[in-house]
Design brief:
29% of the residues lie in helices and 33% in strands. By secondary structure, the protein is α/β, with parallel strands linked by helices. A hairpin with a 2-residue loop joins strand 8 and strand 9. The longest helix is centred in the N-terminal third of the chain and has 14 residues, at 10-23. The two termini are 44 Å apart.
């Protein structure tokens, strides 16, 4: 059974891990994080564990925010020094609410409940490509549907996601990361700065002999030029996927 911990106090986190190992050596600690942003990134990128152990007040806010970012399927156990969030916690379908200092017998009982009620969380492995992304920039996290992405461009070592709506989102992802996450039948790496959705291609015009300049929608001021080496590949991609 996999467990992910959100606890911003390193001593408390180490104690939780030690207690879990004593309760059941077969438990797998799949992640141990101090922030909501890092925990959310794990859940989206690596899949949800069987059990989430969540402190409530952490470095970047209230862990209840996780339920606004993602649809949590894991069994949740809150571990906190505050009792005023108990009602809200159980509204989130928590299976237990443990007050610090955490007692081994209470934690053992909570893990026992998780074993009884947990069904493995299915992970869709039918495609290696993402249908949504957790765009993280510093401490901010935004859930983005891939179908909403028009194009991505990189400038000054920061990548920006441009949505069909016209919105722009800064992210810590590199263009190389997007190439690995996005379906190549839907997105094309035009040059070193741009990856575009097939639905964002507005027009192509000849630019210096065999090179082409691409206009995107929503429009952007940059001249987006396809290299000579990529022009043929780009034309074929358009023919095959539009």
């Amino acid at each position: 059974m996999k467990v992910v911990i959100l606890e911003d106090e390193s001593i408390a986190a180490k104690r939780l891990i030690r207690l879990l190992e004593e309760i059941d050596p077969d438990l797998e600690i799949a992640g141990n994080y101090q922030s909501i942003a890092d925990t959310a990134s794990h859940l989206l990128e690596k899949g949800q564990p069987d059990v989430l152990l969540l402190d409530i007040h952490v470095l970047d806010g209230n862990s209840m925010e996780l339920f606004k970012i993602l649809h949590i399927k894991s069994k949740v156990v809150f571990t906190t020094a505050y009792d005023e969030f108990a009602v809200e916690a159980f509204r989130k379908n928590a299976i237990d609410y443990l007050l610090k200092p955490i007692k081994k017998d209470e934690l053992s009982e909570a893990i026992g409940k998780a074993k009884v009620f947990t069904n493995p969380v299915p992970i869709d492995n039918t495609t290696p490509y993402k249908t949504n992304l957790l765009a993280k920039f510093g401490a901010k996290v935004k859930n983005v549907e891939v179908s909403d992405i028009a194009y991505v461009h990189s400038r000054d070592k920061i990548s920006y996601i441009h949505l069909h709506s016209g919105a722009k989102i800064a992210t810590d992802f590199r263009l190389q990361d997007f190439e690995e996450m996005l379906d190549p039948t839907a997105f094309f790496r035009i040059n070193r700065q741009y990856i575009a959705s097939k639905n964002a291609i507005d027009q192509m015009v000849t630019h210096n002999a065999s090179r082409f300049k691409v206009s995107l929608k929503p429009p952007i001021e940059d001249d987006i030029v396809i290299s000579t080496e990529k022009t043929r590949e780009f034309k074929k991609w358009l023919q095959d996927n539009l």
